[in-house]
Amino acid sequence: MLIHPWDASTDAAEARDFVRAQGFGQLIASGVGRAVPVVVPTQYVVPDEVSVLLHLARPNPVWRAIDENPLVVLAVAGDWAFVPSSWKAIGAEDPARGIPTTYYAAVQLTARATVVDDDEGKAEILRSQQAALDPAGGWVDPAEHGRLLDGIRGLHLQVTEVRAKFKYGGNVDPAHRLAVADRLADRAGPGDLAARGHLIRRLDTEV
Predict the structure, then answer these.
(1) 133-155 confidence digits (pLDDT tens)
(2) Residues 164-175: tens digit of each pLDDT
(3) Which of 6, 169, 171, 207 maximizes the CB count within 10 A of its CB?
């Protein structure tokens, strides 16, 4: 993806926190000699700074691609909001001449995938996912599902590279960004407040 200097993230925690908060992305396995890669939408958990854990059904076509080439990409995007032309104008500026855009965050993790096939390893991945997604509990230990574990395989992704983009108006001055922040707060549609949070947080790190 294209990352302009003003959209780039140099803070590893910023990218990691975003990926952890989203919890859902696209696992991309290119395999070898394929016309197109295998792309799998999936939930995941981030247990530490360099790992991602997930599980998928055994019939998933991604396994063959991973066998061919264990280097994969987990692509995560979200917290997006459309910014109309008029929002880009302040003071005496003509609102009709503003440049519309979309704010969003995107992180791409390149990782080496290790398949987890033993029952206890798969159960441990499921425990991690359930603890993150359903912390209130009320679920049995995954090991109690017994033979149902045969229907899935686990994945441990060891992250080798992080590419992160936070496109929240970093190419314009603080006054214009704050004007957009106010309008995002007023509209408060899906994604608006999350986008506003990124805008304000990144602005605060500059001043």
Answers:
(1) 999 888 998 988 888 899 999 99
(2) 999 999 999 999
(3) 169
Cβ-Cβ contacts under 8 Å for 106 (sequence gap 6 or more): 1, 75, 76, 77, 164, 165, 167
CATH number for the 12-204 domain, one of 1.10.3720.10, 3.40.50.2300, 2.40.50.140, 2.30.110.10? 2.30.110.10
**Residue type present at position 36:** V
Where do the domains of the chain lie?
A: 12-204
Residues ≥6 apart with Cβ < 8 Å to 112: 70, 71, 72, 157, 158, 160
Q: Is the pTM of this model over 0.70?
A: yes
* Cα–Cα distance for residue pair 17/49, rounded to 1 Å: 10
